[in-house]
Inverse folding.
């Protein structure tokens, strides 16, 4: 029996990482979208929490220093050596107050039981005037229903996400942020063919008892694809909130 999501993810990290390595560009749109609100900054320290396998680092530019925070040790061992990585809960990060310029958080907040604690920690880490960009699945959208429905039923470890909603911005304000932007964004996952979709989906979501075709059918039924240049694009949507440290 697993008590925390960190323990669950410890078990799932290997499969997640396998999917990300096998299809390293499928989620390009997500990583680019979460960095877009800090794109004009020439330099700074970027704290990625939770980082998974440190994938965001590949999308940063010269001048940016990357720090990965994740509680799952499997991810920590997998990270390439030059990256700074810290094994820690995202509500309790062993870095000094005001020591980072940017916080980026992609697809990990829906596992958190206390967003106010995490937002307080993000605010503590950021210097005044620093910026946090959060992007995660939004409540009442097809990805949210897919994760807490089909994935919950077919991943042996389950899925119990608490997704971003209209209250999230208020919690950020209460933690000492000024919310500069809060919107749904289209970040389609792009694949070469449907075989790749099936393999990616069953590993990323930990549904390896399903075959690739069953996985693709569920994604098509519950989220949907567009085909551009013959390539399947999953209609993934996130809520992105940009918040500046007061
Ligand atoms: C879906 S992955 C996202 C990783 C990466 N940001 C990405 O976009 O690929 C979710 C991450 O949440 C981490 N995690 C585990 N327990 C957590 C917790 N209690 N709070 C926040 N994140 C947690 C996992 O280790 C995992 O790296």
């Amino acid at each position: 029996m697993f008590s925390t999501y960190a323990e669950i993810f410890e078990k799932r990290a290997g499969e997640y990482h396998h999917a990300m390595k096998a299809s390293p560009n499928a989620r390009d749109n997500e990583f680019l979208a979460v960095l877009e609100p800090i794109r004009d900054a020439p330099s700074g320290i970027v704290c990625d929490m939770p980082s998974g396998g440190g994938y965001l680092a590949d999308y940063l530019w010269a001048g940016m220093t990357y720090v990965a925070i994740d509680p799952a040790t499997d991810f920590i061992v997998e990270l390439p050596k030059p990256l700074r990585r810290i094994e820690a809960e995202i509500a309790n990060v062993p870095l000094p107050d005001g020591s980072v310029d940017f916080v980026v958080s992609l697809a990990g907040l829906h596992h958190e039981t206390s967003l106010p604690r995490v937002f307080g920690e993000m605010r503590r880490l950021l210097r005044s005037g620093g910026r946090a960009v959060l992007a995660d699945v939004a409540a009442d959208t097809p990805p949210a229903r897919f994760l807490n429905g089909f994935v919950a039923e077919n991943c042996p470890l389950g899925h119990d996400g608490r997704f971003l909603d209209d209250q999230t911005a208020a919690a950020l304000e209460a933690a000492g942020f000024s919310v500069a932007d809060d919107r749904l964004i289209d970040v389609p996952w792009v694949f070469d063919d449907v075989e790749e979709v099936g393999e990616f989906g069953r590993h990323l979501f930990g549904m390896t008892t399903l075959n690739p075709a069953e996985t693709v059918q569920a994604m098509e039924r519950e989220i949907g694809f567009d085909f551009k240049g013959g390539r399947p694009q999953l209609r993934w949507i996130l809520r992105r909130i940009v918040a500046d440290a007061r």
In short: The CA atoms of residues 212 and 243 lie 39 Å apart.
